[in-house]
Amino acid sequence: MKLRRLNEQAEEQGVPVESIALERYASMEEYEQALEEKRFLDDRDSRRRSRTASKSGTPSRATPSRATPEPMRRMVFNDDSRPGSRQGFRRPGESPAPGGAGSSGAAGASRVDALKRQESYGTPAKTPIPSVFTPQGITSATAMSTEELNRLQAKVLRAKLMDEPGAEELEKQYEKEVLKSQAALEGRKINDAVEEEGGKVVVQTAVLPTLDGQGRLYDVGLGKEEAPPHPNRRKRNKDPKSRDKEGNIIRYNADDDDMTLDEMVRQEKFGGGASDQKNLDAEMAAQIARDGRFQADLEYMDENSERLARKRMRTDAMKHYKRTQKALDECPYCWHDEADPPRLPETAIVALGKRTYLSCTVYEELTPGHCLIVPIQHALSTLELDDDDWDEIRNFMKCLMRMFAEKNQGVVFFETVLSFRQQRHTVIECVPVPADVFADLPAYFRESLMQVESEWSQHKKVIDFSQRPFRRAMVPNLPYFMVQWDYKGEKGYGHVIEGVDMATEEGDDGDRGGGKFPPYFAAEVIGNLIGAEPRRWMRPARVDRALNKDRARELGTRFQPYNWTVQ
After folding, report:
1. Which intervals hold domain Cwf19-like protein C-terminal (predicted)?
2. Contact predicate 278/335, CB 8 Å
3. Using one digit for the tens of pLDDT, what is the confidence trace for 337-371?
4. Which of 477, 528, 509, 205 is nearest to 367 (CA)?
5. pLDDT-based confidence at 419, cuts 50/70/90?
6. What is the reported pLDDT for 178?
7. Residue 166's CB: how many other CB atoms inside 10 A?
8. Are residues 393 and 427 in contact, defined by beta-carbon separation less than 8 angstroms?
9. Where are the beta strands (DSSP E) in 313-472?
10. Residue 419: helix, strand or coil by DSSP?
11. Taking Cα atoms as reference points, which of 193, 201, 214, 563 lies closest to residue 384?
């Protein structure tokens, strides 16, 4: 990489490469060493490609044929192969030997021997650098084998002969699997996303990002690169023994022996991706729940401990990435600029700022004037937002309070973050209520929060914002409920929602420990005070998108005198 940049800089400036090399390297000897090392590594890569090509039966571009008149260049390091002024490879910090060619040849040979030993023993494990992960090619496990294709074809013929209703679907599935098998044999990189357009299979390659939906680094395990297998070498068994001769457990996974202290520190610091590395007890409980033959005795658990504690690091990161993409594609509050055609948010936008916007509700309003303050970026909670986002949120709150105060009404602002697993776009709901009801709301909310969820909760039931403001009293990595009746966040209550994200799989309610926080909690408290029908908060009807223009015009007319975005 350094040599390539050096050559590019020399071409751009129109000067000899040697002049740039003197600026980059301490001396010309070090520059010559880097050139020799690059040539050796290039020849080694070409030999690897030639071996792989000879095994598959296809000629490689890097391997010249026997009919080529120009012979293949081979690197031979001896005393006569290099001038006396050029010295061999040296270790970092080692001073050049005055011996000239003899010493340089010995140093070069030692460096080449080290490279050869590294090549023979395989590429060592290394910590992956935060970057975009290149999607891996399709493996034999993804595509069906010949025997499986024959079985599927037999099912198709049997279904056609018996005139079964699912014969056409089976035939389409068989054709798709045949194309996937052919693509796997040709070495094409295919991801699981395969779609049909016009009778043709369209391959979509997805790139797994470095960060998860909350900006944390993914942990996908070791960054070990497997070298291509030798054609005459037997394949090693990838399932090492987990017990010694006496029956004691010595390892759980194949990479336990290769785990270094640096890798353990990396797994501890990285926050995203593998849930089994963050909550080992929950992962083992999930493995036990999936085991249909599990027996609650120590002998069974001891015999199957390595299987029950198996890691699923890369799979967990891929599932999290797919869940994130699904949440972004189906979000009703985001701008889908990359969609074909581009789609606007499904809400009726009233006022648009640089980072947030004010809109009508997607579902039926609880009271007239019920609206939403929505961040433009897909945030899971408002605690993740920057100070600039919060400045705009406070501006919308102040304008709404002034607008409804003229009609002797107060405004309740609340936010409900039930779970981070679904990765839903967070919103702050603004509900206007009469002044007499507004005065009684704090006491009703406090009493309702004391009775919600389980009695044996680990967190404080009610967090009062008068002692500490909202952004300092709550944390962004736990589900929570927030209600406030001012724009500063100093008057209101907070509550930590427990049990929703503790389960390792969706739909697992084993760790909830009792009560469940209803998603319509705030609407129920307000609805009971104003005497609204229960269906308005339990099962509100979705508003037709054709009415968005009329709803936005009606609320925008009232909000226009207080609209800070046009000032």
Report:
1. 455-565
2. no
3. 776 677 888 889 999 999 999 999 999 999 999 99
4. 528
5. confident
6. 83
7. 11
8. no
9. 349-352, 356-360, 371-375, 409-417, 428-434, 463-464
10. coil
11. 214
